[in-house]
Fold:
Amino acid sequence: MAQTGSGLTLRAGAIGLREVLFQSITHMAPGVGVAFAIIVGATFAGGALPLSVLLAIIGCALTALSLGQLSRHFPAAGSFYTYAANSLHPAVGFLAGWMYAFGEMTGFPLCIILLGIIVPDALSISANTWWIWVLIGSCIVGGLGYFGIRVSTRTGTALGVFEILVFLALGLTLIVRAGGDNTLSAFTTKFSTIKGFTGFSGVFAGLVFSIFAFIGFEAAAPLAEESKDPRRLIGRAAVLSAILIGFYYAMITYGATVFFGPTKMANFPSFGGGNPYQQLARNVWGTGWIFIFLALVNSSVACSNAVNNAVTRTVFALGRIRVLPRALGSVHPRWRSPHVAVITVFVISVSTWLWLGFQYDPFTAFAILGTAITLVAVAIYILINISCFAYYVRFRRNEFNVVKHLIVPVLGIALFVPAFLTAAGITVFKFVSPLPKPLSYVGPALGVWLVIGIIYLVYLYRRAPERIADTKRVFVEEPPVEAIASIEG
Structure:
């Protein structure tokens, strides 16, 4: 087995289904997802936003099923790049890891920068203090990641339960208070009437930001080497998180739509000074709005923590096979965390939110980062579905099942392609309307990053092709370095 930078491995069997499940759930940021991510889609989908959420549930659940089929055979921290490398080609695996690491790198600043909106608004203090609260949150998340997976995931579990219960209570309250205004028409295109985004154009643009809120159902996969029975638990956590949080998102978004008014939803994102759910809580709960404030702070930290777990494991895995600098594959001798990767991600994340936050403002920075991570995630989801089909056709024909390995992946791809085209600004179909500036800058920026990755791929093939080949390795199936040393001694 190739040694990591420190000669140690991640702590195998450290976490079970509960922690793995909440790794996915908190990465999805149930509070932040519904209060800040999905609502951006209202600008395009209007009162049809619940339909966008419903389509996102279906697409993510189908992809989670495909992921489960792959994780049974490849329980690795490299996750998505390992799946693609074994199912398609190591070069495809390398590019998947290259893009996923970039996309997930935006997730840490994406979630934590919301503290710069939530805290000043709730405490009625100067908005210019936003960066102080974001820096404090970043330090908390970095510390949790440094001290190991048990501390990090158990903290995430506790935080996740709290925010879900609070927002579910608000969603139910809104539905009840809407009374006779409740209507299933919110799950059709009837209220998708925004100029330039009518009908399914608006629904698919809304789908981009609905998927944005779902990103993370797959985040259990990079924790495979640290979980018990990863072949079974990873797929189960992905499917459960997509369905359970999907139901949660649908109920709360529907409640907000019928309470606020389907025909007025285009203005919903700016309601309450850009924090609409906190204002809704003030309207229906009075002083009880403080619970929404606490849930949003909680969600911002919990999401950043889960993203940090996922991206640091991916960076660690790429460092371990020396696709990235070898030092990134180091493991802390006491905490068994990928501490060099944690520190590196922390520095990059803080630099990112500082630059975007001061270049624009915290909410615009959030929308830009959200578009970036969504575009990468959708591409990865499409690739997961392709890999599932390809792997079972090419290498597991005796296990091939028409429903699991053909119909499910094809339907998943069909639902994600329109969202990908919209986010990337590729108008090949009439129902695709590109996003406005500065969100439209994201597609070209990621295109440049992909070109850099291709150039680096060519360089590695010429100078160190074994590093590309190592994208296929499943380290959990190999004996740990400590055991080898003991045997050899």
